Fold these 3 entries.
Entry 1:
Amino acid sequence: MSTNISGEEFHLKEYECLRRGVDSLQKDTRSLERNVVIAVGITWGYLYEKGTDWWTYLFPVIFGVLGGIRAHGFHKALNRFHTYLKEIETAFDPVGRPQGWEHFRAANKNNTDQLEGGVVFWICLTIATVSVLLMKCFKAF
């Protein structure tokens, strides 16, 4: 089966699809953060209500750690997308005019704000879950 699509058209369509993929991954990252916080909160509420053993407070820690690992995977995938999209932008405009969002991101010094916010979120969540576990271990509540 042959098509009459040129290489340029292919790359433009691919670029559009990859940009949608980047947007989707970013939404998934935010959803993951929200869902892990909900899971940790519900679990803490249940455990506090039932007065269970200290080791059951490991579950929120596990949720936080697994969520952080998943978020790290999302970040690595986003970096691959960004690198490839930047290559496509370069191929379509090597003249030196504004080349697109990925080149702007690379040149902008504040392009790590979202990453730093995510890292801070996962660190704070991990500290909170481990702190509650330790308080339960030492009978603080």
Note: Helices lie at 7-50, 58-92, 101-107, 113-137.
Entry 2:
Amino acid sequence: MTNVAITSVDAKHILTKCSEVEETVAILYRYFSRLHLGDKEISALFFKTALEEDEHANQFKLAYRLHGAGMKSIRTDQQSVDAILNKLKSLYETVQKKSPSVKEALNIAINVESSLSEYHMNSIVVFEDPSLSKLFTSMRKNDELHVEMLQEALESL
């Protein structure tokens, strides 16, 4: 993948799609939270994780609104992000048709988090400003924590 200048139309499209990826994951987790209301801890875990995904989406929206200030380029392309978004939307449609058990939902979430860890601000955007880079570094750390929390919940079943 080649780097795309952050001020280009392509980069803005990519940032918008990355935000949509995060929003779609949040929608999926809110669905899992509602689906498993009978298990308060699992429901709360999915809801909390959904809120954090909303925050990730907001970080991409902020990057878009900053018009590249403090950012140099983006390390992905439209096709890659579009493919991920399409897979997530398809996954969401699938789980709505056949509601996953708690174990299945946790496994799905772990797979989603693991596969998306490379599609976050600190790995997609090349920063010129180190302080701005630090601001977005927390997103990847959150995903690592998501996997740990989801894995612990799965193992406790």
Note: DSSP finds six helices and three strands in the chain.
Entry 3:
Amino acid sequence: MSYADVIGWHKSYGPRSGLAVGTSGVGVTPKHYSVDGKHFITKLTVNGVLPAVTGSIGVGLLAFTFPAGVHSVKVARIKLALQQADGLITADTPEIGLGSVIASGAVAVLNGTAGFDDILTEQTMTDCDGTETDVTLVMPTAGQIVNEAAGVKAVYINAADAWAGAEAACGVVGEVWLEWVQLSGT
């Protein structure tokens, strides 16, 4: 069963092209589903690389940038795995989440810094050896994220940990799903 089926979207909703629905980051391939060009499910297929890690540090990867205008995020889902390359952080269990600000600096968790996990709260990974973390967050009506026209449009996949070793390039693979509404703009 697809994510679109899970949240009750009719199977006639299909991929849309030619719409101003934002841009994806490096290593991220988007597919947008919509019937009316205002209500979207965006599937981001991720095959990217996080910046180098060592010690207690937060890092992030730009996944998506919403288009200009006002939008509301209703549901966010991650189905992601971290894939170490050097064998030094294999057993690490970092926090992962979606935020409007890229994680950076000397942090071992995401929830201590505004914007690091404001779209999907931090989740603890099982390891950095390819095990997926699969979490869906449905925002209650009062908790829906409304991004004003002048607001930050970026969506980052963020991770933080007291890393066991120095990793030059940790892969991040899987999917990010966003259900959102374009309330104004193009």
Note: Helices lie at 3-6.
